[in-house]
Amino acid sequence: YSKIKKVILKNKKFSFEIIFINDHSKDNSLFEIKKIAKKDKNVKCISFTKNFGHQAAIKAGITHSSGNAVITLDCDLQHPPELTNDFIKIWSEKKYKIVHGIKRNYSTGIMKKIFSYLGYKLINVMTPNNKLDEGGSDFCLIDREIINTIKKNPKKNMIFRSYINSLGHKKFLLYFFPDKRLFGKSNYSFFQMFGIFKNSIIGYSIKPLRIISLIGLIIFLVSTVMILNEIIRFIFNDMWPSGLLSILILQLFFGGFTIFCIGIIGEYIGFITEQFNGSPDYVIENRINFNDKD
């Protein structure tokens, strides 16, 4: 809060509100936020009934904002608050609807780096019309026009980066070096990262379905040729098909591939089900310093 406040005080051109999202934290965060909000009425807080996740927290903050633009950043201070005025200057003077923070040389585990690199490559192959910038973060400024679009969008499990990218607005890429995490530790597991990558593909492309359909067609055609070949050999050479082991291997291969394809189709069906099952992205337990109209 103190770092953001210093940046705000330097900017005399705009007024600000600071919205904290308490994603059902188990530490003393909510208590500290309440103390700050009591002294500063421009500080607001939304507290969830349970942990709904990072993307739900971003959506809640954006949805309940009242300004002409919103800047999203993490509270661990890896997103440098000092760059806030740079975001604002680019937005106000160059008229970009999106100013997106791109990380440079960020330190993380080697396995996480490899997984992230492969994830971005896979997303961009599967969603050629909605490619993500490698090193992209949720440190981002979006204009009120995009905020209103997000508020109208009923889509659940929205992946913030993928969604704003899909809108097609021209964006400015602002490169930055992430600061070291001052408090706590990352709770993002490989499974959570995998979930984000998966939803970034399934939510914005049907290319995986087309790929498995094409592979299925190729397998069908090759299998048909092989069957016809065996029939011809039997008719003209009186030779029975041989190779029990080969048949078992092929059965295992095609059986495994079939299960894999059913799994992909199941993910799409599950994603569609989530869109219409009526459960909200998040449930608010408490709001601080908000008006009834907000």
Provide an overview of this structure.
The chain is an alpha/beta fold. Helices cover 51% and strands 14% of the residues. It has helices at 2-10, 29-39, 54-63, 84-94, 110-126, 144-152, 160-166, 190-202, 207-237, 244-276, and strands at residues 18-22, 43-48, 69-72, 98-103, 136-143, 171-176, 284-288. Strands 3-5-4-6 form a four-stranded mixed β-sheet, sandwiched between helices. Helix 5 (110-126) runs parallel beside helix 8. The longest helix has 33 residues, at 244-276. The model has no long low-confidence stretch (mean pLDDT 84).
Layout of helices and strands:
Elements: H1 2-10, E1 18-22, H2 29-39, E2 43-48, H3 54-63, E3 69-72, H4 84-94, E4 98-103, H5 110-126, E5 136-143, H6 144-152, H7 160-166, E6 171-176, H8 190-202, H9 207-237, H10 244-276, E7 284-288
Parallel strand pairs: 1-2, 4-6
Antiparallel strand pairs: 2-7, 3-5, 4-5
Helix pairs in contact: 5-8
Based on the model shown, name its key terms.
4-stranded mixed sheet, 3-stranded mixed sheet, 294 residues, alpha/beta
Instruction: Report the principal-axis shape.
Output: elongated
- Average pLDDT works out at 84
Largest beta-sheet characterization: 4 strands, mixed
What string gives the helices and strands in order?
A: HEHEHEHEHEHHEHHHE
Could you state the oligomeric state of the chains shown?
Answer: single chain
| Number of helical elements | 10
Radius of gyration: 25 Å
In spatial order, strands of the major sheet run 3-5-4-6
Unreliable spans are none
Please bin the fraction of helical residues.
Answer: 40-55%
Distance between the termini: 22 Å
Q: In percent terms, what proportion of residues is strand? A: 5-15%
What is the number of E strands? 7
**Given the helix and strand composition, which structural class is it?**
alpha/beta
